[in-house]
């Protein structure tokens, strides 16, 4: 039965709240070891326990490829369906199907990104705290960290959307981040606003923040994908038209 008017609007809103919350809860559940270490990290930071904080850093670095990356790829598999118009897909089934199918690529990509983040973060810390005359290098490292962070959105989107090797996905994710700066800025800004709201109301991280950020990131990615696809079709049509004109000229000769 389809509701109309105000009741229809309320029903659709309730549906979307349920979808977002269910997807976010599955994401939190499947990445719970990483989330648990992150919470412990925040607690020990508040108590200024440096050694324990460092241990939590290592624990999160180990757990991120194993839990966080596969869970996030699965979440992107769900929001991909929504962005492409398939809003009636089963959240639970689609999530775990994406989790299973993309686990290997997410694990390999997670190891790559985690290693780069660790290396860049250590370099940034050293240049900013111990080598004061080379702080400009630290600023550059910070910019690279931000670019790498944003490229992760494209990585997860490509894992969910394409069938290609992990190396190609990582390379294309980074390249797409560099050649589409407006999309990068809008994704980063939108995600920052959502996360800021989550910081004000932490309970939202449990139910909505992850799925909302994922939806917005894939929405931006898919817009870029459609635009690039349209440009490629126009170039292909132009080449075909040029070839046709040249053939006609050859026939006339």
TrEMBL record:
<feature type="transmembrane region" description="Helical">
    <location>
        <begin position="136"/>
        <end position="160"/>
    </location>
</feature>
<feature type="transmembrane region" description="Helical">
    <location>
        <begin position="181"/>
        <end position="199"/>
    </location>
</feature>
<feature type="transmembrane region" description="Helical">
    <location>
        <begin position="56"/>
        <end position="79"/>
    </location>
</feature>
<keyword id="KW-0812">Transmembrane</keyword>
<keyword id="KW-0472">Membrane</keyword>
<keyword id="KW-1133">Transmembrane helix</keyword>
<dbReference type="InterPro" id="IPR006938">
    <property type="entry name" value="DUF624"/>
</dbReference>
<protein>
    <submittedName>
        <fullName>DUF624 domain-containing protein</fullName>
    </submittedName>
</protein>
<feature type="transmembrane region" description="Helical">
    <location>
        <begin position="21"/>
        <end position="44"/>
    </location>
</feature>
<feature type="transmembrane region" description="Helical">
    <location>
        <begin position="106"/>
        <end position="124"/>
    </location>
</feature>
<feature type="transmembrane region" description="Helical">
    <location>
        <begin position="205"/>
        <end position="226"/>
    </location>
</feature>
<dbReference type="Pfam" id="PF04854">
    <property type="entry name" value="DUF624"/>
</dbReference>
